[in-house]
Amino acid sequence: MTRPLVITEDRDLLDDLVRVAAAAGAQLDVAHAAALARPFWAHAPIVVVGDDLADPVAETGPPRRSRVFLATRKPGEPESWRRCVAVGAQAVVELPEGELRLVEEFADALDPSPRAGVVVCVVGGSGGSGASLLSACLALAAARRKLRTLLVDADPLGGGIDVLLGQEEAQGARWADFVSREGRVSSAALRAALPAFGDLTVLAFHRGEVAAIPAEAMRSVLEAGGRGFDLVVVDLPRHLDPASAEALSRASATLLLVTADVRGVLAAAQVLGEVRRHTGEVSMVLRPGVLEEAVVATSLGLPCAGHLADQPRLAGALNKGDLSLIDGRSVLGHFCATLLTDLMAA
């Protein structure tokens, strides 16, 4: 991909623009003279003209195009708007106040054609119901279909969904690298930073003490995920935090795992009450127990998306990092493939 173009001789301004571009995951082509910019003008995804070279650029008669901005470190300078019009820029960006806007403009320009990513949240109705397992299996089923898939571990106390996948040693960014992020994140930069296995990309926690995910960081990740992936699966904790609420508010569908016994239904009802404060699209996935589906569905007032059967030897296999029991030929794999079809169709 052609890189963004910056046209300036002002070293201080250039330092600011390099830092802003880095925040959006971009590298720059830099022209220190107006004439040197002409070969790049039409092809760069975004052009930022420094106010120091705006007049010389205008004199070259550059063709009109979108995504041109005039950058200045002199707030309130009346001449900036004249220069903006002269070079055909769509706005003046005053630094440092306009840095966040420019980060978002770089990220927008660098994103490929956006995808309409489906966001699915998974939450356990009671402890040990298998929400992380269902999240991982659903994401793997999507990746096997060549759907670009992002699996997000949103439970800081869950032990790590990357461990469940046997990929805890994989190189790449973790939540600690995103918790301080505000504003837009490029989907291309997100994919490049995170561990990926074929069409499956994973955002998990690092080992050791972890911090809670700010809602702003979850928002940035899910917005980038929606633009850059076909499916985003979010494994939520049972005790919802602000980041969980943010994820639920963006969910196309939410799956609540319910164990079909009295205690499991009562616990699920408590979780459901919190979940419904943030989203309306909730279905249950039923785990085996003594109660019939109709009884559970009536008690919770939820439609049933399917039955997640127990699978012998699964726990031992997962402890060894063996995923063969959740491949497309297994009972669990077949269930997730069917569930995926329903979710994507809806």
From TrEMBL:
Transmembrane regions listed in the UniProt entry: none
Listed Pfam families: CBP_BcsQ, Rv3660c_N
Residue ranges annotated for the Rv3660c-like CheY-like N-terminal domain, each copy included: 7-114
Name this polypeptide is given: Septum site-determining protein Ssd
Species: Nonomuraea mangrovi
